Amino acid sequence: MKLHLKIWRQKNAQDPGGFVDYDLDGVSPDSSFLEMLDLLNEELIAKGQEPVAFDHDCREGICGMCSLMINGVPHGQDREPIKQITACQLHMRHFRDGETVVIEPWRARAFPVIKDLIVDRSAFDRIIQAGGYISVSTGSAPEANAIPIGKKDADKAMDAAACIGCGACVAACPNASAMLFVGAKVAQLSYLPQGQIERYDRVVNMVNAMDAEGFGGCTNTGECEAACPKEISLDFIARMNSELIKANLKGGR
Amino acid sequence: MVGVMSFPRTTIGKKVIMAVTGLIWIGFVAGHMFGNLKMYLGAEHFNAYAEGLRTFGEPFLAYGQALWLVRIIIILAVVLHIWAAVTLKMRNLQARPVRYSKHRKLHADAASLSMIYGGVAILLFVLYHLAHFTWGLSAVHPDFRPTDPYHNVIVGFQNRLATGIYLIGLVALALHLYHGTWSMFQTVGLNNKSYDKLLRGLAWLVAIIIPLGFVTVPLGVILGILS
Amino acid sequence: MMNIDEIQVAEETLNSAVPKGPIHEKWDQHRFEMKLVSPANRRKFTIIVVGSGLAGASAAASLGEMGYNVHCFFYQDSARRAHSVAAQGGINAAKNYRNDGDSIFRLFYDTVKGGDYRSREANVYRLAQVSNAIIDQCVAQGVPFAREYGGLLANRSFGGAQVSRTFYARGQTGQQLLLGAYQALQRQAHAGTVKLYPRTEMLDLIIINGRAQGIVTRNMVTGELKTYLGDAVVLATGGYGNAYFLSTNAKGSNATAIWRAYKRGAYFANPCFVQIHPTCIPPSGEHQSKLTLMSESLRNDGRIWVPRRAGDTRPPNEIPEEERYYYLEEKYPSFGNLVPRDVASRNAKAVVDAGHGVGELRNGVYLDFKDAIQRLGKEVIKDRYGNLFDMYTSITGEDPYETPMRIYPAVHYTMGGLWVDYNLMSNIPGLFVIGEANFSDHGANRLGASALMQGLADGYFILPYTLANYLAQAGPGDAEMSHSAVKDAQLFVQDKIDKLLSVNGKRSVLHFHRELGKVLWDFVGMARNDEGLRHALKRIPEIRAEFWEDVRVPGSAADLNQSLELAGRVADFLELGELLALDALYRTESCGAHFREESQTEEGEALRDDENFSFVSAWEFTGDDQTPRLHKEPLVFEYVKLSQRSYK
Cβ–Cβ of A248/B4 closer than 8 Å? Predict the structure, then answer.
């Protein structure tokens, strides 16, 4: 099949960047979206041009590295009949022959573009560094079954922990807010007994770190949840909110 | 740092302020709407009610004190609500300096995306409404009598333009109430998927009943039910 | 070019430094005897960790907690993306929570047997010993393992074991364990004990005065080459499955770090032990860039078949029951579709090679759920495998509820890697290798749910002790930036990059990678023979020569350049592939994943040659295009009885 591609090209963080049009022929409907880009890059290399830089790694939807805005939707989510996929699992059979496809990087102040479609998501790491963990040094753990956890809580914690840190929530949010990402981690650890000790400091520190990175605020539009390839629920944002309120009511314990 | 003073500076803290002040205003508009319906009980009743708002609490409170107390609370609430909204909006605009050339919404409804615009519309409407029925500026009200609110309402709504402005204001209010009511629960952390339908239903109810109550008065005047 | 007839075997066997004493006391005794570094002195030692997967992140975090000054390098943008994240099934531990007869000894025994008796007993026993502490540690970190209604941990059984000892977090166990280690690592980054270097790849190892004391790296964003010196270097860079081009590995997974270490003198052990997973989605065409694994659990309910007549192109539902060849059920009546990974893989290859393959490209076999759906109902199947079926549909566009799945084996895990002793140290002092990157505890075949166990055992509970022992004895390093070895490594790296960019040929890197992958898959894949391996040994150097004459790498070195990154990695695979083939040719026995057609039982099973091949092959680099020297580490089995596997 044939495609008309409009791809954002940007040499580096300083370059203003812009769209470049490409016509690509011979795309197999069975190929994945990233394999389609591989094909384009092969052609560009053959023509002596620089290939399009894009992030990708596992190509099976779990590492969270791929990050493409495809026709205005993170990961091209709306294409697949089965939702909740990442761009690497999106397949070309869901595109029309001759279709125009616009490909942009995630756009947020906290995710500056490094090159072409690659953005810097280290802000997420710094938020985790601020408190997204349980402080347990190697060797000091008690026997695993000494801490029973109700199946319901364990399941909820797992629902929240499924986040792959791809940043589609930020990309989709009209305000480029990271609340779903941060909420998922705060919520996961808040459901578990192991997470109770640092519970309130954690949420305060993580929210402050999130704000310091320049993400927007939440206006409860629900776009993040709809775009999340792992179905992380808005409930976890509510959970984080109540955690933060409690932390403040307790005045830092 | 955990501290009472740092909380309002966080994005979430500001949202909580908006939720709480929003709740105050939901209470206010609900009460206001309920009072307005007294129009149907006739001029005497309605004017007595208006006067009663001022004499409420006597002799413990002096004339007008209760009303001013409420006014101060809602003014403070609206100032905080606007402050939080504006600072958040500025932050949100800065959070995405380069816009997408194409950005398709997957889930967001018009209500959630129009909150700030609806808010501005409601603010403008409230100012108009104050000029119309509270201050009685001659530019907006042709025949304002400070001691006869019933008359003011009837005369005020006989103007088609004024009625039109009210209808627009109420549509903005409905949208704002719908997203705001649901959002309030989400923001203070009282929402989850098992309550979600219930809270959405509640939001619908609030967003329909309050504006509907309000709209009966201007419509009543236009249709000649009230005169 | 490597030549099988020129192989020199070192006279002295390798010293694995296994402590004396009964197997269950070795590790405890060794821990007592090892030297320590006092807490006050630890921050004076700088440790370089390359890789941030389960092994790398757990090691870096643990060493940071202890007070060492740690630098952790990885090519991804965040440590959370290392390919450990993709492991689905679970992690083994000898907790015996199910009261079904499990024990440390049984886990040890199963692992040695599963590895077809080509692993080091003492290491495997230690692995089983620390397995329980891993679960404790992960639970304390907040890893949301599956639980029973009573709130205690749940288990399931996994291939090759008759007990339920596998802990799991839905189908995302690798992800959850990695996030646990990642969070511990971020905590140390926050505390300032670990410095993280994302989007940075190691391109050479620096050895000064016989000690590994530094690495040369390339910043993948700016292209800057930078040297880091330390008192020890830990490689946790994963396996080399991507040499085959198509594998279940991440696209970025590469062997450059271990290959550079090999070329600086570290021995490469058992490169031919490559595990091929039976249930992957077959390639759909030239464009295919990687293969996706479908959990092995599907074989519990699915029936594997191909058309009985070769070349039958009818759609599956038009092939009547009597014309379907349920080859596993017919050949292995007692195990049927549940034979071990290597047996299932080889049989799939055999039927496809004989022309029975299905799908448009005739490159798969059917995995059919029709009977299971009839027996249990669609809902039950959906409940068990819904996610996998959805994933299959999204990739292939076919609905497995209606039409049988197509599956085919794919390269999945490499048991081979750099040779290490009991202390996880290579033959180069100060160079430690952990996780999949070392030649590991899995022998010739890894059991399901054991990779996660090994990565975390190495990083959390073994390396922190043995590295301290090394540092306490060797003392601080004496590396200086002005040393000639530093200059030499920097020059080498710069030179290689310049060379790659200056060839300016006609063909892309991908072209050569595909070419190499095809040769490895066809001749050094699931079934290997003398003729094929000799062909591969001839063909790979030819492809390598073509690569250096005709590759085109666009862009510059002073910039983010993904073509250049790939070119460097493929250049290394082109060398590693040859060693892989040589090792496979040298080992004329079959064992585990290594199947030599010349060495099979009458039933067609892998036939070991314990008399001649009960050793680890550790290859020493002797120069470019030279035949490497072979060092042997004899394998002695005192606790496990060697036996021939049979699944009839």
Answer: yes
